[in-house]
Specification:
With 194 residues, the chain is mostly helical. The chain has six helices and two strands; from the N terminus they run H-H-H-H-H-H-E-E.
Length: 194
């Protein structure tokens, strides 16, 4: 019997060792899986990169910020302003050359239709009008370009900002009790819930 008991104990110990080995290996693999995400860093969203990208090519910073709907708006504004710049430049050149021809007394030049139709003061006034419009168009285009850069930078700063869905704004009618007068007053109550 003691020999059989010894064999039973050996078999039990071997069985326990055999059962413990897979559990140890499994727990080690679990530890490895848990430790891998800790070592991977989340990619940061860079406002500087968005600003530089938008300065190089308008709309590129908005694409980096994943605000794709803003790209057509940017290019529509730049397209409209380019149209005004080209139109005002052409008209400015036409009236400037017509004024020069009128001042020289040339009625058969390239701008004869304008020279015959308008006086020198009218041509000068039209030239100044289109020059002013040209300068304003260039200024608005520059402001639009700067707004594109600022928008990309602000969006990049707010890219990781978490906005709760519980945020709400309510408008409610309210009746105020008499405080300074004898009558009740009605009004609108605006409440912001976080």
């Amino acid at each position: 019997m003691p020999k059989n008991l010894h064999l039973i104990l050996q078999g039990t110990i071997c069985l326990l060792i055999f059962l413990c080995i897979p559990a140890t290996v499994k727990s080690q693999s679990t530890e490895l899986k848990v430790s891998i995400p800790d070592s991977i860093m989340e990619k940061k969203h860079s406002p500087r990169k968005a600003t530089i990208m938008s300065a190089i090519l308008p709309g590129l910073g908005q694409a980096y910020n994943k605000k794709y709907w803003k790209i057509p708006v940017i290019y529509a504004g730049l397209g409209v302003m380019t149209y005004f710049i080209v139109t005002n430049t052409n008209e400015y050149i036409n009236y400037k050359c017509a004024y020069i021809e009128k001042s020289n007394g040339d009625t058969a030049g390239n701008y004869a239709s304008l020279v015959k139709k308008y006086s020198a003061s009218n041509l000068l006034s039209a030239r100044e009008y289109y020059r002013r419009n040209l300068e304003i168009s260039i200024l608005i285009t520059a402001l639009w370009y700067i707004l594109n850069i600022v928008d990309a930078s602000v969006d990049a700063h707010l890219f990781t900002y978490n906005i709760s869905k519980d945020l709400s704004l309510k408008f409610e009618p309210v009746i105020l009790p008499p405080s300074y007068s004898k009558n009740y007053m009605s009004g609108i109550k605006i409440s912001l819930h976080f």
